[in-house]
User: What shape does this take?
Amino acid sequence: MTRVGRTERVVRYVLMLAVLAITVGPFLWQLSTSLKGPDENIYPSPPSFVPHDPTLANYAEVARIIPVWDYALNSLKVAAANVLTNCVGASLAGYALARLRFRGRTAAGLVFVAALLVPLESIIIAQFTTMRDLGLNNTLVAVVLPGSVGALNVLLMRNAFRAIPYEIEEAAVVDGANVWQRFWRIALPSVKGTLAVVAIFAFMGAWDDFLWPLIVLSDPDHFTLTVGLNFLHGTFADKPRVVAAGTIIAVAPLIVMFACLQRYFFRGVGEGAVKG
Amino acid sequence: MPTFRGTRVSRPARTAVPLLAGALLLSACGGGAEGGGSAADGKVNGHITFQTWNLRAQYKDYFNGLIDEFEKKHPGTKVKWIDQPAENYPEKLSADAGGGTLPDVVNVSPDLSYPLAKAGLLMNLDKEPVTAKAKKVYTPEAWAGNQLPGLDGAYAFPWYLNTGPLFYNKALFKKAGLDPEKPPTTYDELFADAEKMAKSSGGKVATLAGVPAIEDFGRYGVKLMNADATKFTYNEPRGVELLTEYRKLFKSGGLDSQALSATPESAGRKFLQGRVAMNPGSAPDLVDFKENAPDLYKNLGITDAPTNTGKPNMYVMGLGVNDRSEHKATAIAFARFVTNQRNQESFAHEVAVFPSTRGSLEKPYWTKDDGTDEGRVRVAAAKMLDGAVNYTPVVMTEEMKTVLQNEVAKALQGDKSPKQALDDAVAQSNRLLQQG
Assistant: This one.
């Protein structure tokens, strides 16, 4: 470490605090709004962050307006299924693209890149009619299926596997390991970080998705949390405190998930970035 | 203001709309014309689905009551009620239309019914004798509001109407030396007051929060389209005049400096914060003011929105009937039941909307001020509905509204002259219109 001058250090901290305020500020604002009671002005200027009369009534109101726990359970099912299919699918496909030699490997890789370029909106009707023909529309399976193996995740895994030195696997081959053994015992344990990244991306993607579940689900009983929370926006008048409480309910699991996996997450982001 | 959520579309959704609309037309054309659908004058029985737009959370009991009553009255019928959330409703309708899963009775506004009707998915109520008879139940304005240009008929039973007065902050008026009891009633007065307000507050308090939208052009007396709705005409001299006035206000601070990115929500918030002096709204906003900005509530003034035409703007909601429904007679019966005089009036007692049935607005509830603020707003708004029109052309898609908004922004920033900006907006919109 080089020594840092006092002024430079001050500037660094000020900048970091500024970025912190920008990124965390809106979230804190929502949190504070969700805790404010009915008599409090939520639009004073200058804004006040600390509620005078903190209350959990807004959260109860969310639960009264919509069956929030049912929706959360639906979301959890979809997100868990999405994490599972993406981790399994993306690591298998990624390993095949990185390590196995077969005809059309480059072409297959290109197909995955091309898949990244297709905007969801342009194929959403086709997806919807496909689900209807399969008899799956209005089910949670239909929500999971189109995103069950994300192209981006496959590419992430492929790069992670590529970064493992070839020699290690060659040594395993000499010891008589077959492809499955090499994948399971050697390659996979070395890319745990990227796997955590894929898990977080898959969870967040499924948890936050709005348009596709809205389109494919018709029955309000099957709605996921993001779609269901939209009911909190009144048709004729908004209740900002209740909407804020709904937002906090939606975001909380993501924060918990990130807190649990953050150790792997930062390792994973760096993995494959530098070739050793 | 949150009069109708449908006017609000998030940015990513905007880009999705044209793609989806294209997909809808493709798939609808492939479906074959006049495919399926039972007789409109058949027996009333069987299962139908009824779709509303974001009404379940607040009015569950009302709708369940209606459905129970209908099922009892017509044994053998079963109504399944589904409700869609506020956002991306047009996309949901397109997907259902393309996939052939459109419910039997759907809650639509005229701009939503237009693409569905064009694809042959909604029933033309003027063509079918059974439904044409129902016409006399509704006010002529409401029925006309659901008629679609170029498609020769009304495609939805009129349901609730909405309009709203203009709210203003008396404290800010007083501070600027304006008479708080004399709000502006014409556009000339509005612009003059805004100048004064900007000058006395040093540009800190704006009078208007948002850029002019198509309804504002309509209220100003601009001719928006030609008679058969094939070409936009809002670049006529009066349109240019309105935009020129707004440009002056933008420079002087009479129009909020963040107006270019304003949404109905952000405008409402600025009004609550006392940084904007006037804002359009409706009766439910009163509750919002009372709860969220008690200081403002004490100083709240209510007035009619200024017009040069004498005809205020209104929003129209309707119930369309799926032309391919297997139980069309049941669907028609149910749509008529929901929109009959008694049921519309009772719905309008639950929430501050207005019934579209003939004679309803002459009842004391909408003509006699009961002394409360809600009552005052209700009576004022009901009075406005007499002769009100839906200014927004039904063929004007979200994309065309965005085109107008972008060109208006360029004019306000001084990148283009108002004339040039409107000419460009009209040219682009006409091109889009021809593609659709």
